[in-house]
Amino acid sequence: MYTAIIDDKLKLKMEKQTMILDGKKLLECDHSFKFPKHIAKIEDASVFTTLFTVTNEYEEIVHQVLVPSKSLLYLKHSLEKMKEAYDLYGHEMPVAFFTDNVQSDKRFLEGIFDSLKVIEKPPQQATGSSESRSFLTLPSDIEMRYVNRDIGRIVETMKSLSDKLEVERNAGKPLVIGLDTEWNVDDDPQHDQVDLIQIAHGNTIDILHIDRSWNTLSEELVNLLVKSDITKVGRNVGGDFSRINKRFGIVCQMKLELGSFCSQRQLVSNGLMSLSDISLCILGAPIDKGPQRSVWNIADLAANLQMYAAIDAWASLAIYNVAVNHPLVGARVSPTCPVGSSAGIKPSRYRQPVAFGEIMANGRTAVVKITKIDVSGYLANGIALQAYGKPSFELSLPASHLVTVAPMSQVSRIPSANPAATNYPEIAAAISNPNTIPDSEIL
């Protein structure tokens, strides 16, 4: 009775549970000779001599088979089927396979799992000094305006910028500026000094040299900083806001932190990266941060310091203008997400999407053109993805089952033109919505 129940009702479920177990990047195998001695005997002779077992890093059994001997030939078929299960359920291939006979097992296991092969890379030559590195430079069409402690010129400059922003406001365009500040890093124990305020917009960068005797800023500059419909972008721009508030009592509004903004779009691996590193990833060149610790409250800034200050603000705006053209990654797709956007099918039990494609029609139910499958055993509308055939094909799915993903063919991250002066289309905001796909929807 026990055997009948196991064979008829539970065996398939047990095998399925074994195949879909996650955490299989580190595997360990061993042969056991005690168990086979008590089963499957014919005239007191054992049919099987050993039980071959594979466990993952959590000591969970992921593969088990009775074999007549320790010969590797008897394992080839079952391990190949194990690899097929990896592909079917979208598991990462193993990177290490622990065995008690490395010399003889190595070639056999690598022949089944290519991921076990170690590819030796030639040692990299040491890079040159920072002087020989190619740093970010301003495009030739950028105008840099330096205003040295002249309130009248600051008023005039900010009025000119406000007029440009008003034209964009009337046209319904988003208002965005790059913002940065400079101060004497080695002489600021209270973190309340502001010697320079840099503002980048379009093809213009304004470098405003602030006198330390001033207790306030011009009304035109203050209006720019406090307006909530003008987005100020920068790396650690919140720190600039705090410093301006401590120095002048001005509560700046509407900040956009570039680190998290780029990280959420998978343009950088870490949202805590410096502006220079983000610039390298997105604009193709780092920023020379050598002048950062210069003395900024001197009478007149040298040309190299003006250039450094200008690049810091311009780079923030240029990075934003590239990043805003990429959708937020990993958020639930809203019914208003535009047709043509890249999307992934992501069940609740998976950390990553099981398939990728392009939204062909959107609403509460979306039509997705599937272009890539990672988990061919996933059941979409009750049918395994592998049963639909090779991509591409179209599926109708609830929009709440989809998440935004980076486009399959990424736009070049090194802009050929001036990205700070380019108007990129807005990306529709994606909303958060819990996944309602039941765990049972898997082959």
UniProtKB/TrEMBL annotation:
Residues 154-321 form the 3'-5' exonuclease domain. Keywords: Exonuclease, Hydrolase, Magnesium, Metal-binding, Nuclease, Nucleus. One of its GO terms (molecular function) is 3'-5' exonuclease activity. One of its GO terms (biological process) is nucleobase-containing compound metabolic process. It comes from the Eukaryota. It is found in: Nucleus. Transmembrane segments: none annotated. The keyword Nucleus applies. One of its GO terms (cellular component) is nucleus. CDD domains: WRN_exo. InterPro entries: 3'-5'_exonuclease_dom, 3-5_Exonuclease_domain, RNaseH-like_sf, RNaseH_sf. This is 3'-5' exonuclease. It comes from Mucor lusitanicus CBS 277.49.
